[in-house]
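Service request form, structural biology core

Requester: graduate student, group of Dr. S.
Request type: structure prediction, single chain
Budget code: on file
Notes: please return the result as structure tokens.

Sequence provided:
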Amino acid sequence: MTVTTETIDQIRDMKQLREAVDQLDAELIDLFRLRFACMDAAARIKQDRGASGMKVARQRFWRT
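Core staff response, request fulfilled:
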């Protein structure tokens, strides 16, 4: 089952709800793995070209 707001609205018992939450958790974990892989690639690319860390504009974005 693909979890959407529509499918969540159709859930009528806790077993189904737990399954939906478990599925979403698994998808989030996969997304974080991909994001971390991107950050590893960014670090590798920056190191290969001798670039330093995060740009000032991105630092400002993450501080707010």
